[in-house]
Design brief:
heterodimer; A: alpha/beta; Rossmann fold; Alpha-Beta Plaits; 2 domains; 4-stranded antiparallel sheet; globular; B: mainly alpha; 3-stranded mixed sheet; 13 helices; 3 strands; 60% helix; 7% strand; transmembrane (chain B); membrane (chain B)
């Protein structure tokens, strides 16, 4: 790894009583990347983010975020933005006041704080609701306000715990482009989410957590694993005949609503998919579509031999 | 799978630049305190509950003041008592209201999920705790301000001076601040808001109700039979002679060492406030309730006299102690220490990162 990681954790452990929430996390997040933190419920994602945000002391191990120890350093604090999975709002404050309060908490001057608050309200498309009390905001709007709040100090490292929950599809797309824009500007984003299909489209790397420890750190874009694709055709028997002749192994698609017309096939990469499609069309099979069954992350997630807690 | 890092674990900029100098956050800053205080006050002022509470308070203090004033006017009593009674009523009401103003400040925010987002910022624990205390105290002072017209009105009836009036009000304001600080401490200690409210009320009740009860209950414990110097008649008068001879002699008498327990009275907010209103140098016998309370407390503070007076028919020697000495600096000092302890607990419990979590709580 060439650049110094923006987030570096080594052999982190943290227990609450007898519950070992984090038990051996190794993590290195590239600066300027969007990295997904993926794991089943109770796998230690939130605890890990709390340690990275400087709210919890690890029992063991070392952490560096934005080049400093978040547990003891004001420098690290000023460089970290954190959005918890569940948070409240100061109900009687307006959206604008929520942000200026946070600006004050990060020691921005009043003028600077107001400018930053406006800028962020526009970024998360809440400028129309700037003077609305926070309790009148919908769940998704609160979520967007929470995102703006985490960005108030222009952090180098952004820690997001389930930021997409409660967002409508449009807001999700906007969040995706916002995070990509932040990453392009050099911000490092670590994001935990359950909506894997969405992460698939925006993350550079993924870290998988299971039972409190990192399972594998995958470089998704570089990875070229065999994926399962769904091939749909108007003529099921014709498809079967062609596959038999071309010696392609088809797997029955039990999930599909249209039965025989849809089959599954394992392919090594996109080139193989293109070749298969060309061959099938060339052989006169009326192909409707060929698409991956699941996202890369979902596939990796499901392939993890972990059980839910 | 274990990953081995080849990167040195040394602080350096995110881009691999030169190590940034780590400026330690100040322990407390005016900007931080103001940010929190403004946040808290904004939330409080905007709730309608708050306005209703102030209105009810105004009506209640007004009603009681008018009743007290009217009672003195119709019964022809000494109007000097009016100010004392109104002041005590405002204190009593204040001690009921003040615990609600700060006793849920920290655990309430933690439960609402609005505490951790402030703790991750550059705000120090002291910023948050002092800001919340100032906001709670300011709210308590608003109640005091609302009762000011009635306090001034009753003061104009007599019984106090401008200096005494301002001292009483200052001490009353400080006592309300102490209650807020105690409440803040409990709100940092307990996970549930109901728990901290109850504990704060228990603390206030202990100061106001429990202390005199304890004083009375410990009275037998500090009362002993000792050899003391008595000034009195040693023998029966001889027949035909009515004069008694009074001399000093040593005898066994029951004495109460209240100098060991007088502080139970001195830390009582009502005693403290009464004492601030006492006029120095006035004869307790023909002055208001304040002077009487001060004289009685001073008597307890001095304990048994060195010489027990039993020579009733001679003119009393002046007391060997100064029964006009102010009590309130002691009581206020002790209460301020309690408040400081509450604040210190709050600051300590707000420190992040957490090593251990308070029972039953989550960080966020």
């Amino acid at each position: 790894m060439a650049a110094v990681p923006a987030i570096l954790a080594r052999d982190l452990h943290r227990s609450f009583g007898t519950v070992r929430a984090v038990a051996g996390v190794d993590l290195a997040v590239r600066p300027g990347s969007v990295t997904a933190l993926i794991g089943p419920n109770g796998s230690g994602k939130t605890t890990l983010l709390l340690i990275l945000a400087g709210l919890l002391v690890p029992d063991h191990g070392s952490v560096l975020v934005a080049g400093a120890d978040p547990a003891s350093s004001a420098t690290a604090r000023s460089r970290i933005g954190w959005m918890p999975d569940a948070f409240g709002t100061w109900d009687s404050l307006t959206a604008f006041e929520v942000l200026t309060t946070m600006a004050g908490a990060y020691r921005l001057g009043p003028e600077q704080g107001r400018d930053r608050a406006w800028e962020l309200l526009k970024t998360v498309h809440l400028e129309d609701l700037a003077t609305a009390p926070a309790h009148t905001l919908s769940r998704g709007q609160k979520q967007r306000l929470g995102m703006a709040r985490a960005l108030i100090n222009s952090p180098d490292v952004l820690l997001l715990d389930e930021p997409a929950s409660g967002l409508d599809p449009r807001s999700r797309i906007e969040m995706r482009s916002l995070l990509r824009a932040l990453a392009a500007a050099g911000t490092t984003v670590l994001i935990s989410s359950h909506v894997l299909a969405e992460l698939d489209e925006m993350v550079d790397d993924a870290v998988f957590l299971s039972r409190g420890h990192t399972v594998t750190a995958e470089q998704l874009r570089a990875g070229a694993a065999t994926r399962r694709w769904r091939l749909r055709s108007l003529d099921g028997p014709a498809l079967q005949r062609w596959a038999f002749e071309a010696r392609i192994t088809l797997v029955p698609d039990t999930d599909a609503p249209d039965g025989a017309g849809s089959v599954l096939v394992d392919l090594t990469d996109d080139a193989a998919a293109a070749a298969l499609l060309a061959a099938a069309v060339g052989a006169g099979v009326p192909v409707v579509s060929l698409a991956p069954v699941s996202g890369l992350l979902e596939q990796a997630y499901l392939s993890l031999d972990t059980d839910r807690r | 799978m274990t990953t081995t890092f080849t990167v040195p674990l040394e602080p350096s900029g995110p881009g691999g630049g030169s190590p940034a100098p780590d400026t330690a956050a100040p322990a407390i800053s005016w900007q931080g305190v103001r940010t929190i205080a403004v946040l808290e006050l904004r939330q409080r002022i905007r709730s309608t509950r708050w306005r209703v509470a102030l209105a009810v308070w105004f009506a209640l203090v007004g009603l009681v003041s008018v009743l007290i004033g009217g009672a003195f006017a119709s019964l022809g009593g000494d109007p000097k008592w009016a100010f004392g009674l109104v002041l005590m009523f405002v204190l009593g009401l204040g001690l009921v209201v003040a615990p609600t103003l700060a006793s849920t400040a920290i655990n309430g925010d933690r439960n609402a999920g609005t505490l951790a987002i402030l703790q991750v910022t550059l705000l120090s624990p002291a910023d948050i705790a002092v800001g919340k205390l100032l906001a709670g105290w300011a709210a308590a002072l608003a109640f005091l301000a609302v009762s000011l017209p009635f306090l001034i009105w009753s003061a104009l009836l007599g019984g106090t001076t401008v200096g005494g009036f301002s001292l009483s009000l200052t001490v009353l304001a400080l006592m309300l601040g102490v209650v807020c600080a105690i409440g803040l401490g409990f709100s940092a200690l307990t996970a549930r808001t109901a728990g901290s409210s109850v504990l704060t009320y228990i603390a206030v009740a202990s100061l106001t109700v429990l202390t005199p009860i304890l004083f009375v209950l410990t009275f037998p414990a500090v009362t002993t039979t000792e050899q003391v110097v008595v000034y009195g008649a040693t023998q029966e008068p001889t027949a035909g002679d009515d004069s008694y001879e009074c001399t000093n002699f040593t005898a066994e008498r029951e004495v109460s060492h209240t100098e060991r327990t007088w502080w139970l009275l001195a830390i009582n907010p009502f005693v403290i406030l009464a004492d601030t209103g006492a006029q120095p140098g006035l004869d307790p016998e023909d002055s208001g309730p304040f002077e009487a309370i001060r004289a009685a407390t001073n008597e307890m503070r001095n304990g048994p006299p060195e010489v027990v007076q039993e020579c009733w028919w001679e003119s009393q020697a002046p007391p060997t102690f100064d029964d006009g000495a102010p009590i309130w600096p002691w009581g206020l000092g002790a209460n301020l220490l309690l408040g400081a302890a509450g604040l210190a607990v709050a600051i300590r419990r707000l420190k992040v990162p957490y090593r251990t979590l308070p029972g039953g709580t989550r960080v966020a």
